[in-house]
What we know:
heterotrimer; B: alpha/beta; GMP Synthetase, Chain A, domain 3; 2 domains; nine-stranded mixed β-sheet; four-stranded mixed β-sheet; about 30% helix; C: mainly alpha; Amino acid/polyamine transporter I
Amino acid sequence: MVDKSTYSSLILLIQFYSLKISLSISFLLKFYIFYYEFPFLGNTTSGDYMIYEKLKKTFHQTSDLKHKKIGKMNVVYLESLCSSDKINEYILKNVPLKKNYLFLRDVISGPSVVFLDDIEQASFYLMNGYALCYDKKTMLVCEVKADLYRAIAPPTVEPSINGPKDAFNESIQTNLGLIKRRVRSENLVNENFTIGKKSQTQVSLLYIEGTANPTYIQEAQKLLNHISMDSLIEIESLQGYLEATNSPMPTALKTERPDKVSTALFAGKVVIIADNSPFAFILPAYFADFINPQGDLYVKATNANFLKVLRFLCLIITIVLPGLYISIINYNPETIPLNLLLSFQAARLGVPFPSAIEALFMISVCSVLRESDIRFPNSYGSSISILGALILGETAVSANVVSPIMIIIIGITFISALVFNSGNLIDGIRYYRLILLLCSTILGLYGFLLGCFILLLHLANMKTLSQPYLYPVAPFSSKYFFKSLLKKPKESQKEKNLLKQEGKL
Amino acid sequence: MKKVFLFLLCLFFFTGCSDYQELSDINIINGIAIGYEDGEYVVSFEIIKNEASDNSSEVTSKVISAKDSNLALAFNEAIKDSDKEAYFKHVHLLIISEEVAKSGIGDVVDYMLRNVKMSTTFYTVITEDSEALINMKVEDDTVSNYIVDLISSNLDRADLNNIDIIVSTILNQRKDIGLPYIEMEEDDKVTLHQIAYFHEDQMKDVIDAKIFNFLYLNKTDIDFLRDETVLNMYKKKVDYEVKKDKVIIKVSGRGSVKAVSSSIDLEKYKSYDEVKEVMNKQIKEEVEEFLEETLSNDSDLTGIKDKYYKKYREEKDNVPYEVQVDIVLSKNGSIYEVIHD
Amino acid sequence: MINKKQYISLSFFLTRIVFLGGGFSLLIGTSKNNLLITSFLGMLLGYFLLYLFYRKGSISKKSILLIAIANLIMVTISTTTLTSTYLLQKSSTMFIMIAFMVTLLYAAFKEVKVIARVGEIVFPISFFITVLATIALIYLVKLDNLFPLFNTNFLQFVEGIIAFAGASLVPNLLLINYKGDLTFKDIGKGYLLGSFTVILIMFFILTIYGYEFASMVRFPEYLILKKIDFSSFVTNVENILVMEWIADIVVGSFVCIKAIKDNTNKYWFALIIITLIIGIELFFNKRYENILLIKKYFSYFNFTLLFFALLGKWQKKKRH
């Protein structure tokens, strides 16, 4: 028979050992769960500093790679790319409050957290403004990007009197936000690409599903997938990949205005934006798209059409005028009325150079002046303009180096070119101007005409996203013609009808 | 390979530019005078002198001349005398002397048309001494411009300044041309009151320009005087009715009374018929006199023979004609009667 | 392939290319005062023959080659002659011709679509300038010069019709193979428009000059442009306006050279071009009498090419 005291002590002993066993089992179970969830754990068992040392070696001992250990957790980040406020807010502040945390993810309160399987993935995220947090069981990255971008500023290259005054900046997220503010549609698709082996720049392809032409989308995807470059600093570098021929004329419309991008998206085009670039590319970009600014949409149609016609004339003048002048003055002066011809002749008396050389000289000087105007800081601006005016104006004419007529001709040529926003267009037509000048010098009006045909053939042969560049002029499309080159007051008419129906007219 | 080809092509093209001429290397010729002296053609060019001066409205010219038995050679000689390349595309006036015109302007117009460097839109005038006319002194202008202004203000006709249309009329042997005849007076003054009329390419004589202007020109501002009544025909229309036996020239138009004789009171209805009858007679007489004089010299300025041929395909040397005049008095001035007798 | 508007514009140019530099003075000399009547009847004949070719469907390669080479020779000669007579008197004709050929060769290596687009752009400019130039000459028109009618014999009358039809229709045949699904109405429009503008110019030449003068002038269509005068300010614009003619010829020649390139291999093509340049320089530019010969008989030769092109298989009529 068992004694009562022995029985009770036996019960106590059984309870003690069963508790111990259950605790061990639960501990083992948790260990098992952790192991399955985070299989890399086998790698971290060798020590906290090993990961940091490994990363430091990867980043070539860079001084801004920081390491912080708080309790069980380690934080590694690149100080230059991360915001210390965010690190505090999302990571460090929470650690003392949750000392005995079970899961690392409960400590991190950041909105964007990615769990990593392998240390090799860590360098990509560190370079993108993420902080690496790890302990013995878990490794994750949390976004703590510093705001290294400037605020949304008014457009500098494409100012507008009547339109919105916001422009893109270097942050792709901000740019996406500016676009999505205008295109509030769930059909706005944003496909991401990473371009640049070393720069790993994020590039987005935007289009509205159901509106965009599927051909454009496929072509753009094909082009972006086949780009292979080391680094993409600015979106302009993509221009060479987006076109098939080496032409001086641009085939992608570069813009810094989100309203222009939204208009293009609604018109069925595709848009490419890139991180670190305050510009976007609109494709396909026809020749007609480069001529008129976005501001025309915010003006009455009749007024806008007058300006559109004027701009088109300016385009023709800026390409054709020097060549036409040389061919008429030097091959066919009978076209000029006699009194004007006599004044031209008197103006050219004493000028030692032939007109063609004079024209080339003046074009070069004006191009140099324009370049210096772009590059020089504002504080020197006034002295440059005085120098330019003196050189081109008084001094050159009084020294009989150039004739006043040539200054007027080249002046009109360059002023007509400045009507356009697109710097690429202005740079492109410079070549055409020179070719026509050369053809006119050699063969007069006949050469000028043949030169015009060669340029027309060149333009007609160009393609933008496999579409003909001269659309809607050739092949002619009245619908797009009245959208781009001339404006129909359709909306205003519709609006009038609506008001009439409601009895307000 | 493509670049080598392009380079060779550029080199090839740069050897061209032979037609390139600078404005400072040309002499702009404004007028040409062709005369005849001692059996040789005398060709004179009026070259515009362009010197840089403060007074931009001042235009001066100089004249160079050359002689040769053949017109083309005379032109070549004159071109050689010019220090720079002669530029003919701004020729505004061709002066032909009477002697050359009477022997036939065929050679002259043939040279003008055949020469590709020549303009074809210039006025052709006849004068007694072409060299004297082109050497005339004009203040602040060239002789050619002065005479062209004179012609365009007095004779407004579409084809007078087109030598090829003149030639096409000559080739149509059923019609003849009339060219302005410039008379030079003593104090370097010129007048344009006469027309030199031609038969084919030979000048026949000169006639007063009044009826020529009245019948053939666009602008009309011709005064007719009879019995102290002066009628200014400011609008006219000339129609031709071609019948088998004759051609009827119907002149109609509107007149403005500039002066009336003392016996006419324009307040009365009957007076208008009187004035009309009188002026119709006057105009008819003057037109008939004009046609008679020109047709007697085989010069058919009206083209009566041509119109008859076009209708009846019959070439007749003398086609009978009749002049019918029917004018309307539409503007009579502010007063009805004569103020003083 | 090329769309309707592009077809019409190319057809418009091809209808006109043979007329410059030989067509007008020849036709005026043959038809005299019946010029407008014979041209109109020639246009109708050409329209009917165009319908036959439309029904035929396509033209054999050899015919296309023959037509393209013949017309290219003719237009090269006429362009070179016009340019060297009035525009560039001192430059050598070889130089002018090579500049022309270089432009054509640049176009030959592009697709037909590209040439069609260029034609589409140049067409309204060309049409507008033609109409503007003719409107500026209305004040010089004398309808009397059109009479008397029927002052030629029957043979000359028929010759005039054939010459017009040959000159206007045959270059158009180069486009038949590109017609695609276009209806005859679309194809005929360009031909009628081109013929109409040619007849309009003939009307002005005849009424301003009369047939006696016009038939003795090498380029009457150039001479009438010299008459344009707007208030003594816009004068002597003939050299600028004749550029419009040369533009028409250049676009038409693009089609000719493209037809040659597409129907031969690259060696034959190079041989043809080099032979053309050397041949024209030796036989025509240096000896004007040969140019007279070719101008006199070319339109008739073109007309005979029509019958050569009519040979071959005809496409079956589509039954629905």
